[in-house]
Amino acid sequence: MMAGSSALHPDHRIGVVQIGLGPIGQGIVRRVLEMPGVRLVGAVDPAPDKAGQDVGSLVGRARVGVEVQPRLDPDAVAGASVALHSTGSHLEAVMDQLLALVEAGLSVISTCEELAWPWHHHPGPAQRLDRAARRAGVTVLGTGVNPGFVMDLLPLVMTGVCTRVEHVHARRVVDASRRRGPLQRKIGSGLAPDEFDRLVAEGRLGHVGLPESAALVAAGMGWRVDRIDNVVRPLIASRPIETPHLSVRAGQVQGLLQTVTAWQGDRERVRLDLVMALDPPASEDAPTAGGARGVDHLRITGEPPLEVVVPGGIFGDTATVAAVTNAIPRVMEAPPGLLSVKDLAAPGWWSGAAW
Amino acid sequence: MMAGSSALHPDHRIGVVQIGLGPIGQGIVRRVLEMPGVRLVGAVDPAPDKAGQDVGSLVGRARVGVEVQPRLDPDAVAGASVALHSTGSHLEAVMDQLLALVEAGLSVISTCEELAWPWHHHPGPAQRLDRAARRAGVTVLGTGVNPGFVMDLLPLVMTGVCTRVEHVHARRVVDASRRRGPLQRKIGSGLAPDEFDRLVAEGRLGHVGLPESAALVAAGMGWRVDRIDNVVRPLIASRPIETPHLSVRAGQVQGLLQTVTAWQGDRERVRLDLVMALDPPASEDAPTAGGARGVDHLRITGEPPLEVVVPGGIFGDTATVAAVTNAIPRVMEAPPGLLSVKDLAAPGWWSGAAW
User: Coiled-coil segments, which residues (chains A, B) (predicted)?
Assistant: First the structure.
């Protein structure tokens, strides 16, 4: 099954269009421009400082003769088989874009966090998308590094060598000290603790997609999920922290600790701990040596029990660009519908060579 | 695509037959008997102490009313959709069995090490099997923990979050001290160094399947392989080692170190180091603490660079049983032909529930 194969270009390259030109979208464009088997035929972003520019120049590369379009209309996506989509984290906010792409006959690979496994938290939109994709004969996939890989797909893959699985635990520690200013603010750095709690209560702080990862793991294991809890707590700085973007005083927030648990009855089946902080507190598996203070740590309780450590952790921005672009040939070969990373062929690097 | 779906039992369980009742085959049977969605309809082994016995009793479980057949003939596999096959490591030695199963209309999941990626070292048999499987509308897969997971599929999966990959290195250290006697002898323990070298030269020592893993990794990365080197060296004991099965004197062999490298021109692309020894020498990532002296260690050179550590290492026998049985639903849904683990849906535990 080769959804969209009829839209291969005469030169046999896969035509793609990039929707959204924030930092991740721009990273995707840079990688796509290096892939000989892929042809960037369009780019869409409504920002006044982007629309109208050559997309190559916009991302710091040579001009490519593709002008950024302000609107997602049929002209903007003509000639594309696959849309790479990175405009937002919340499914409801991007539903119209996803449906427009599907109805234009494009498969979609999106970084929308809630799309990674929308069947639990957003069953209505998931069904609508799935039906539209099947009708159009295209594939829709939500992916990235988190959700989409390190706290869901990778633990699922590890269970492939288990005869029994009782519980899945993933812990990710991200040191935000050297990351972009917006990310440092997104994790609450510099806030007073009560302001942090207020923003959490309003749903404005916390990593979007973590509950989806837990639901995806549970679905992969065949566990019926009765409840998913999502708790976001502040990490309070015990000493001042300075970054190029902001200052944190002792007693202010240096980052967040988010814990999502998925329950089958009164039995915890999945636990995901995400620490995103400036100078996250050291722990035995997040040594300070070498400057890399992040870590990814998986623990499968079962037979055999398994522990997996990624020292330093997987660097998020690059990994998300990779997850999206490496998925292109897999999506081209997938059956139509709304799929998840666990349904596709096993992940892997794609050189971008003619396909 | 549901190869063999027409052979689902009236009760909707998947009918399987087990070919080969050595330690791994018996482990597979024990797991299959626990899977409500699978029905064991046959078992074949020519050994006089096995044929004619009830297969449940043979594996230390309750009688199941299935008698071990001495020969792989049509009666022995009647009612099965999938054959689970564990009779040998070398492809040429099991080709007739594999072809007979395929021609009987069964998909095959085999632990035959050389079947994990036969396209490089055994292209003729690979083509024959592929053609026969397509003709019969069934799927043939070689899998296990090594080859099939830890030194090939897992590194491939990790590259799914890389935008660039230059080199893949996997190192596996297995402490054979507490393993079965046959395994301890298979790795040369207790031999004199010159006897070890003679057996290596005769192709009678060394882990079968390691060159196949390297070829599989290269194929997954899209690297043309010009040469695969396979070097097996003895590890010499510096002090006496006693196990329940044998004694090693200082100066005798305590195990082996096997290194396989895959080359694209004069560029090393894949390096696999396998240490299998009694009390393998400690190294920084194989601490002696806790008694678990094995480790699996992956290193991807690329963007981002990635390191993955499985402290203790993945326990082989259980993991191979798991890899085979967890593949059942994936093979049922796969297209016909000779596939590899990288072509199937992402791996993961299967509870064995009705499918």
Answer: none
pLDDT along chain B (355 residues), means of 10: 45 92 97 97 97 97 97 92 97 98 98 98 98 98 98 98 98 90 90 97 94 98 97 96 94 97 98 95 52 85 97 92 98 97 96 84
The ranges assigned to domains in chain B are 5-144+318-339, 153-313
Residues A213-239: pLDDT tens digits? Answer: 999 999 999 999 999 999 999 999 999
CA dist B304 → B200, B211, B308 (Å): 38, 26, 13
Distance from CA of A311 to the nearest CA of B (A): 6
Residue from B336, B30, B308, B166 nearest A307 by CA: B308
Using CA atoms, how far apart are residues A121 and B280, in angstroms rounded to an integer? 49
Distance, CA of B232 to CA of B215 (rounded, Å): 17
- DSSP string computed for B50-81: TTTSBHHHHTTS---S-BEESS--HHHHTT-S
CA distance A42 to A44: 7
Distance between CA B149 and CA B315 in Å, rounded? 12
pLDDT for the residue numbered A354: 78
- Cα–Cα distance for residue pair A199/A349, rounded to 1 Å: 38
Whether the CA torsion B214, B234, B299, B271 is positive or negative: it is negative
C-alpha–C-alpha distance, residues B3 and B332, integer Å: 6
Nearest-by-Cβ selection for B157 from A157, A161, A309: A157
B309 at A interface, C-beta within 8 A: yes
Report CA-CA distances (Å) from B48 to A183, B17, B51, B60. Answer: 68, 19, 6, 18
Residue A306 has its nearest CB partner, among B164, B314, B345, at B314
Strands (E) located in A86-203: 107-110, 139-142, 164-175
Chain A residues inside the 8 Å CB shell of B36:
none
Q: Do B163 and A31 touch (CB under 8 A)?
A: yes
* CB distance B212 to B121 below 8 Å: yes
Give the per-residue pLDDT at B281.
Answer: 78
Q: Is A292 exposed, middle or buried (0-12, 13-18, 19+ CB in 10 A)?
A: middle
For chains A and B, CB pairs below 8 A equal 162
pLDDT recorded at residue B289: 40
Q: Does domain A5-144+318-339 have CATH number 3.40.50.720?
A: yes
What ipTM was estimated for this complex?
0.95
Q: What is the mean pLDDT of residues A251-258?
A: 96
C-alpha of A115 from chain center: 9
SS3 A229: strand
Q: Who contacts B100 (Cβ-Cβ below 8 Å, separation ≥6)?
A: B72
- Mean pLDDT calculated for residue range A29-34: 98
Query: CA of A281: how far to CAs of A185, A254, A257, A295, in Å?
Result: 18, 10, 11, 12
Judge whether residue A5 has pLDDT over 60.
no
What the block records as the tokens of A166 is: 């009782």
